[in-house]
């Protein structure tokens, strides 16, 4: 008899549980139906035309616009290197210097030769003028006058050659000061101060890499 009572109670409990669960399910469905029937709230705003940020991620490479390997354009002893590896340098900044004394001496020599040849040119031109005047008077022959005129022209050519040599010396002297052609960062230093550098050296002394601006290559 007790077993029957327990079975009846269990069946009654299961019935009430199922009935309550069905009622809750029906209530939730009714609530969802009411929510679906409600209108969607809308907020109005003025129309604007703007750039929409769109970000895409991908692999790329960074390349410097300019990478300059600095080499000596003259032969001589490297006196100083004024930067360290990794330094930021500006365009035109002095990076290294080569012993300028041999080039300065050659410049002084050619300047002295120019002064000497200019003095001889003045004397030759004066002689040519005197010979022409005496030729007009019938004292000297045309051949003698032409010889003096040619001598003056020869010294004119010598003076021009001396000036060209001086210009070349000035260029060579300027090459003893090595400046950065671009703004950037100094890379590895290949030569230390005290070494003899040559214009024919295969490796450069310094490498300067331009970082601003810089190129970024990527594919989308």
Briefly summarize what is shown.
By secondary structure, the chain is of the alpha+beta class. It has helices at about 1-35, 100-135, 140-175; strands at about 60-65, 65-70, 75-80, 90, 95-100, 175-180, 185, 195, 205-210, 215-220. The protein is rod-shaped and about 165 Å long.
- Our count of helices gives 3
- Subunit arrangement of the protein: single chain
Helix- and strand-based class? alpha+beta
- Total count of strands: 10
Into which percentage range does the β-strand content fall? 15-25%
Q: Strand order across the biggest sheet?
A: 2-9-7-4
What report would you give on this structure?
- With 220 residues, the chain is of the alpha+beta class.
- The chain contains three helices and ten strands, in the order αβββββααβββββ.
- The chain has helices spanning 2-37, 101-136, 142-174; strands at residues 60-64, 67-70, 76-81, 88-89, 94-98, 177-179, 184-186, 196-197, 206-209, 214-218.
- A four-stranded antiparallel sheet has the order 2-9-7-4, with no helix packed on it. A four-stranded antiparallel sheet has the order 6-5-3-8, with no helix packed on it.
- The longest helix has 36 residues, at 2-37.
- The radius of gyration is 48 Å and the shape is rod-shaped.
């Amino acid at each position: 008899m007790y077993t029957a009572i327990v079975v009846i109670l269990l069946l009654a409990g299961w019935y009430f549980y199922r009935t309550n669960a069905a009622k809750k399910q029906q209530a939730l469905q009714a609530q969802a139906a009411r929510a679906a029937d409600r209108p969607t709230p809308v907020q109005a705003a003025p129309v604007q035309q703007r750039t929409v940020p769109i970000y895409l991620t991908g692999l790329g490479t960074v390349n410097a616009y300019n990478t300059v390997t600095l080499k000596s354009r003259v032969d001589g002893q490297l006196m100083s290197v004024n930067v360290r590896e990794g330094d930021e340098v500006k365009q035109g900044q002095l990076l290294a210097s080569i012993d300028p004394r041999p080039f300065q001496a050659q410049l002084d020599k050619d300047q002295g030769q120019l002064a000497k040849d200019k003095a001889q040119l003045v004397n030759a031109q004066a002689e040519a003028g005197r010979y022409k005047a005496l030729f007009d008077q019938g004292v000297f022959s045309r051949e003698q006058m032409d010889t003096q005129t040619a001598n003056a022209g020869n010294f004119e050519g010598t003076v021009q050659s001396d000036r060209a040599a001086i210009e070349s010396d000035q260029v060579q002297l300027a090459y003893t000061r090595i400046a950065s052609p671009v703004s950037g960062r100094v890379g590895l230093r290949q030569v230390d101060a005290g070494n003899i550098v040559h214009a024919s050296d295969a490796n450069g002394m310094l490498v300067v890499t331009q970082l601003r601006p810089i190129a970024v290559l990527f594919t989308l």
